């Protein structure tokens, strides 16, 4: 069970890292080149579409499976792997703090903008730079968590 939990934790965390990386390397640079209306409309559409079971499995599963892996590695014979797993858990929780303190509230604010009567340029200005910067932070955090879990796999 320890190995299965650790592998599933690594897989789901890797999927979350890949998602944030994709935003950093393609989605946001691509949207940076479009007009304000397209930007607001596209981000709102993406933010609705991402709320699905597959996303929940990776995003929430990474936390749950990493916590389970940590619990299953308690004991003298698994201390080295446990240290890597705990590091991953701390980094992943850091990413969650950023996501729920910064990125989600920005998404929610952007969702309130009326595409026909709202000031789309001002809405984008309040959103884009801050969201992109903090997405880089959470990308680094979750990638660090992924790397830590790889370390745990090597040591287990």
UniProtKB/TrEMBL annotation:
Source taxonomy: Bacteria, Bacillati, Actinomycetota, Actinomycetes, Micromonosporales
InterPro entries: Anthrone_oxy (IPR013901)
Transmembrane segments: 53-74, 81-102, 136-154
Organism field: Phytohabitans flavus
Protein's UniProt name: Membrane protein
Domain of life: Bacteria
Matching Pfam families: Anthrone_oxy (PF08592)
Key words, A-Z: Membrane, Transmembrane, Transmembrane helix
